[in-house]
Design goal:
Blueprint: H1 12-21, E1 26-34, H2 40-52, E2 57-63, E3 66-74, H3 78-86, E4 97-98, E5 110-114, E6 135-137, H4 139-146, E7 152-155, H5 159-162, E8 165-167, H6 178-188, E9 197-200, H7 205-216, E10 222-225, H8 228-239, E11 245-250, E12 257-259, E13 278-280, E14 289-291, H9 294-300, H10 306-312, H11 316-323, H12 329-332, H13 335-344
Parallel strand pairs: 2-5, 6-10, 7-9, 9-10
Antiparallel strand pairs: 1-3, 1-4, 2-3, 8-11, 11-12, 13-14
Length: 350
C-alpha cells in the first residue's frame, strides 16, 4: 500500500454507519512519550498499518521529539494494541490514561499526522534540558499541597478547557493556545519564583514540557499533577478521597468533555444560566465552540446566535452564496475574547 493511501477513504456518513454497526464497546484513552524518532514519516506509516488492523480510531501526532495520541480501541483488541505499543522500545511501559467515561463515543476514524512537535509550544528545545522536569504529584500529594494557602495552582490548558472544569483556586489565564500561555504564566509568576507551583493539564503532556521550561527559567519548586486531570480523577476514585478538581474535563474528541464531579462551574453563553454543555455551533460556516444550556439549544437549534440559526434554515443553495460574504461569530472573535466578553456581560449572542 502506498503512503498516499494510508489514510481514511470513507465519507463521514460511512464512518458513522461503521461505528454504529459495531457490537463491542470501545475503550478511549490517551498516551504520550517524549523520545527521539529518526524517521517520523516511516514510523507514522508503520503505526497506521498495524493499528488499522486492530480497528483503532483516534488522533495521533508524531514528531522527531516523540508521540502524542488520543485513541479508542474495541475492548477485545485493547490488550493487542497495548502489546503493539509496548513492542516499540521507547513506548514500553508507557502510561495509558484511560478516560473516566472510557466507553463513550469519541472518534470515528484513525488520523495520524507528522508534525514538527507533538505539542505546539513555540519553544527552542535546544536551550534547555527537556528531561529535567518538575516533580510529579499523585492525587494525595496534590490535595495536601492545595490545603496550603501559599501553594500556587496553574491551569496549563486553553481557556475554553478550563471554563467547564478546574482545580479550586487555580489561576486560569484567558488564553486559547499553549504557545502564548507559556510566556504569559511566566510573567504572571515573575515575583513568585520561589513559591510552590502546581501545574496541571488534561493528561500531563503539556506540563512535562512546561515544568522543564520553568525550571530552566529559575522556578525551583515547579510540580505537576502526574497523569493530568484524567489520572488524578482515577486515583481519587480508587482511594476514595475528595476531588479538588470541580466540574468537567474537556477532551479533544467528539465527547468534548467527561464529568469528574457534579459541580457545574460554567454558564450558558446565551442566557447566563449554569451549564457546562459545550458544543460547536451547528452552522458549519461559524463552528465556534461555546457553552449552551438545553433550553437555549432548543430555542437556537444548537446554534450560537439568531443569525446562525436563521442561516442554517435557508435552502442549501442560498447558504452557499451567502457563506462567501457573511461574517459569523466564529470568524469575528477568537474564542478567548468572545467568551470573556460574554462572561463580563459586555457582549451577548444576538
Amino acid at each position: 500500500m502506498s503512503p498516499r493511501k494510508l489514510r481514511n477513504q470513507l465519507s463521514p456518513e460511512a464512518l458513522r454507519a461503521r461505528l454504529e454497526a459495531e457490537t463491542d464497546p470501545r475503550i478511549t484513552f490517551s498516551f504520550y512519550r517524549y523520545a527521539h524518532i529518526e524517521d517520523p514519516e516511516l514510523f507514522r506509516n508503520e503505526c497506521y498499518l498495524r493499528w488499522t488492523e486492530l480497528s483503532v480510531f483516534g488522533r495521533v501526532y508524531i514528531a522527531k521529539e516523540g508521540i502524542n495520541g488520543q485513541v479508542s480501541v474495541p475492548a477485545p483488541n485493547f490488550e493487542a494494541f497495548r502489546d503493539a505499543l509496548y513492542s516499540v522500545d521507547f513506548m514500553d511501559g508507557m502510561r495509558l490514561n484511560i478516560a473516566i467515561e472510557s466507553e463513550a463515543e469519541s472518534f470515528l476514524k484513525l488520523k495520524i499526522k507528522v508534525r514538527d512537535k507533538i505539542v505546539a509550544d513555540g519553544l527552542n528545545d535546544e536551550t534547555f534540558d527537556v528531561t529535567k522536569r518538575g516533580r510529579h504529584l499523585n492525587a494525595k500529594e496534590v490535595n495536601e499541597l492545595l490545603e496550603d494557602d501559599d501553594t500556587i495552582v496553574v491551569d496549563m490548558r486553553n481557556h475554553y478547557e478550563s471554563e467547564v472544569g478546574y482545580f479550586e483556586g487555580a489561576i486560569r489565564p484567558e488564553i486559547d493556545n499553549f504557545r502564548d500561555l507559556l510566556p504569559a504564566v511566566e510573567e504572571m509568576l515573575a515575583d513568585k519564583k520561589d513559591a510552590n507551583i502546581v501545574m496541571y493539564c488534561t493528561g500531563g503532556i503539556r506540563c512535562e514540557k512546561a515544568s522543564a521550561y520553568y525550571l530552566h527559567r529559575g522556578f525551583p519548586n515547579v510540580m505537576m499533577v502526574d497523569g493530568g486531570i484524567i489520572d488524578y480523577a482515577r486515583q481519587c476514585q480508587a482511594l476514595g478521597i475528595e476531588s479538588k478538581y470541580l466540574g468537567k474535563n474537556f477532551v479533544f474528541d467528539e465527547r468534548l468533555g467527561e464529568r469528574i464531579t457534579e459541580h457545574v462551574v460554567a454558564h450558558c453563553h446565551q442566557c447566563g444560566k449554569p451549564s457546562d454543555r459545550q458544543l460547536d455551533c451547528a452552522n458549519e460556516a461559524c463552528h465556534i465552540l461555546f457553552v449552551q444550556c438545553e433550553a437555549c439549544a432548543e430555542a437556537f437549534n444548537d446554534c450560537c446566535s439568531t443569525q446562525c440559526k436563521e442561516f442554517i434554515e435557508l435552502p442549501e443553495e442560498e447558504q452557499r452564496k451567502l457563506k462567501i460574504t457573511t461574517q459569523f461569530n466564529g470568524q469575528r472573535f477568537g474564542k478567548a475574547l468572545r467568551a470573556s466578553l460574554v462572561r463580563e456581560g459586555t457582549a451577548r449572542l444576538e
